[in-house]
Amino acid sequence: MIILKRFYFRPIFYHYRTNTTTTTTKTKLNTFNIEYDPIKQSIIYPQELNLNNKNYSTDSWTNVNENILSRIGLNLHQQKNHPLYHLTNRLRKYFYQFYDQKKLSPKFSIIDNLSPIVTTEQNFDSICIPINHVSRTKSMNYYINQNTLLRAHTSAHQVDLIRSGLNAFLCIGDVYRRDDIDPTHYPVFHQCEGVQLFTKEELFIGNKNVLGDKDNLEIFGPNEQRDATKQEGHTLEAVKLVEASLKKTITDLFKTLLPNTSILNSRWVDTTFPFTHPSWEYEIEIDGKWYELLGCGIMEHRVLENSGLNKDHIGWAFGLGLERIAMIMYGIPDIRLFWTNDSGFLSQFVFDDSTHSIQYKPISIYPQCINDLSMWMGKTKIDPSDFYDLVRAIGGDLIEQVILIDEFYNPKNQRYSQTYRIIYRSMDRTLTKNEINMIHKDIEYHCKQQFGVEIR
Ligand code: FA5
Ligand code: MG
Known about the structure:
By secondary structure, the chain is α+β, with helices and mostly antiparallel strands. The protein is 24% helix and 26% strand. The chain has 12 helices and 20 strands. Helix 2 crosses helix 9 and helix 11 (384-395) crosses helix 12 (433-451).
C-alpha cells in the first residue's frame, strides 16, 4: 500500500458530486399543529391531537409540546444496538433464568411495547396515589387532557398486567416527566417495572429450608397492625420473606450488570411510595457520590385488590431507570446522549452480544460532516480495508468513520460499484465545507490513481 502524503492542494477539474449533510435531530416541527401565540405568549392547541392514530380532545389540562410528542414511538430500548437495547436484553437474560417448573416456562413475562398514553386512572388511581398528591400536578406531568397523560412511570401498568393473569413480569417503556434538567435527568426516560407475586404455598414451601416444617404460616393475620415494618393484615414472616426475595433479586441483578459493584458501596434507603409499604431506594456510590438506581417495596395490598386478587397473594415491585444504569455501565456522561443520532456515539454500541462490556469514548462536541463517495470499478471489487487505509492516510484524525453503504454488480458492463460514507469530524474545531471538500477531492483523486476506479 502506498503511503500518501497531503502536502499541497491539487486543483480538481473533473466533475464531482458530493452529498454534504450535518446531523439533524429527530424532532419534526409542527407535526401536531401546536402553535405559539407571541402576543398572548401562550401555546394554542388544536381541538384534537392525533397520537398513535387516535384522536384525543385537548382542554385546559393539555400541556404537551411538539418536542415531547415527537418522542412517542421512538422506543430507544427497541432500537437495535442502542445502549438501552443492550441493557433491555441483559434484563431479559437475567430474568429469563428464573424458571417455573410447574408451567415449564420462564417465570417472568416481559412486556416492552405498551403505549405510553395512559389514563389518570392507570397512572394514579389504580396504584392508590391520593387525589391531592403532588405527583398528579400539571407542573410534574405531560397531560394530553384532564383524563389522559403520558405515563410518568411504568407502575401505570401494574394493575392491568396483574388483571390479565400475570404473576411475575417486567414492563419496560418510555416515561415522561416535567422534571429537572441536568446530566442525569431528562423529561423522557425509560423505566423497567418488575413485579412478582407469591401465594402462601410459593412463599413458605419455597423457603422450607429457612423456616423448617411449619405449616401454620400465613400471609395474612386477623390482628396485624400497620407499622414501619409492614402493612395492616400482613404477617411479619411473610413480609420478611418477600423483602428478602426482592433484595436478593436486585442485588444479584446488579452483580451481573455492574460486576464492579462489589467494590462500590451500595445501600438500601428507607422511603415511601403510595403503592408500596415498606419501601426502599437502592443506591450505589461512585467516586464519593450516591446514585439512586431504583425504587421498590412490598406492594400495597389495595393495589392487588384493584387487580382483582383476594387475600391470597403478596408481592414485591420495583421500578428502575434504564438510563441511570446504562450511564454507569458504559460510562456515558450525559443523559442527552441517548437521544443523539450521532454515529460517533451510536457506532460504539454496534455489537451482537449485549453482555459485551465497553467503556464509551467521548465524541467531539463539534459537528459531523458526512460525504458519500460512489465509484465504478472492474470485475474485482476494492477490498474495503484498502479503501479505509487510503482514507485514513489522507484525512488523518479528521476521519471519524468510514462505512461501505452500498455495493452491487452490473452484469451489463461487468463492473462493480461501491459507495462509501465518509464521516469527517474534528476533535477541536468546526470544519468548514470547503476544507472537507478539498480532502474529499483528494481522496477521490488518489482512489482513481491507486485503484483505477471511475468516480460516479
Ligand atoms: C418511580 O417511578 C416508582 N414508580 C418506582 C417504583 C416502582 C417504586 C414499583 C416502588 C414499586 P422514581 O420516581 O424514584 O420512582 O423513579 C424510579 C427511577 O427512575 C429512579 O430511581 C431513577 O433511576 C429513574 N428516574 C427518575 N426520574 C428520572 C429522570 N428525570 N431522568 C432519568 N431517570 C429518572
Ligand atoms: Mg426516586
